[in-house]
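Note to self: the last two entries modelled the partners one at a time, which told us nothing about the interface. This time every component goes in together.
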Amino acid sequence: MGNFEPKIVAFCCNWCSYAGADLAGTSRIQYSPNIRVIRVMCSGRVNPLFVIKALSIGADGVLVLGCHPGDCHYIEGNYKTMRRIPLLQKMLKQLGIEEERVRLEWVSASEGAKFAEVTNGFTESVRKLGPNSLGHSKQSSKEAKHG
Amino acid sequence: MAKLKIALYWAASCGGCEIATLAIHEKVLKLAEVADIVFWPVGLDFKYADVEKMADKSVDVCLFNGAIRNEENEHMAKLLRAKSKIMIAYGSCAYEGCIPGLSNFYNRQMTMDRAYIETPSTDNPKKILPQTKFKVPEGELELPELYDTVKTLGQTVDVDYIVPGCPPEEKTTWLALEALISGKLPPKGTVISHSIKAVCDECPRKKEEKKIKKFYRAYEMIPEPEKCLLEQGLLCYGIATRGGCGALCPQANMRCTGCYGPVEGVIDQGAHFLSALSSIIDSNEPEEIQKIVDEIPDPAGTFYRYSLPDSLLRRAIIK
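The predicted structure of the combined assembly is written out below.
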């Protein structure tokens, strides 16, 4: 497993975490190239379905990044995320997927360094877990139909 | 007009859907006027060989209930697909896998061990498991092979229409049969039901803002008769389930368990219920949220009760 490079999907909220990722970039902070950033308007937009889908088509880990509690642009979107992720993790565990493959973190627009720290830390922990055993080629007709 | 030729079949199912087809009561006479049943193992003495002899596409409609979990189910699904012009996944097992689909939390070996060795009422000291072939003096006996993973009908053959429900309600069954009899068929792939909205839309209970501090299991409380069951902390699945049933369960003080499948446009019912349910937890403190979540004993089994084989993951990963 020496050369296993985890594929990581990071859902970043438009107002804080995506700007945080931007700041990490413009500040020339080095961070793990394993992450694929997907910008969403709010971490509350991240339906647990998105996380499951990412895992089912080959992601080894999924990061959900949002504004700090109290800072949500939409007032309470991130609180909804705060409630969803623990239940999602509990359910994934029952389905044989390690709960450590999904992580929720708060990264503000000014926290470029934290963005790098979180993505690096998460990448390393997923690297230790090894590849997600859901077959990468497992594309059901249903998934294909829904893009 | 020539009479419609209808075939009915059951694969991995409990038999409830067979009862549900008969639950159309006196309308069965109307059906008999316009249709002939050419195959129906539970009711009429046709053999598989009779079906094999039929010309391709000679059956107008096949109402297929039950999931696909062994060789025989798969063979009959493919055979009936070839013989039928219209294939209908009738009931939740054929549509989403339903209760037989819960064995996708385990693998074949675990299911066999549980059923034939571990259950307290089983006396099987030699640990004999069913074999696909067995020699007896009269010859060789065969049993179909049990698969590791339960599949839906739609994952096995091309399906034209879906009739949801565990089992489908009388009016839902009749809606489908009426469409077939009149020839006014909806677009291919339609889930035939009176509603494309959620069960809540039909539920007469009073609904206010949903905020939940504690979830209850059915035996832990006697719900108030008029207030929304979800607001009372019961895991009522109505918010993520297609209506058309008339919200019968909530009206009988029983939470909706989700048998009509997802509402229109949703591909993973369990994930959507999880999303909706968890967002109404009444807390902004991670520790308290964790405590409330911990009180839900079996989220995967509750959220995917009817739809694990049809979910994005289809089954649990067994290591």
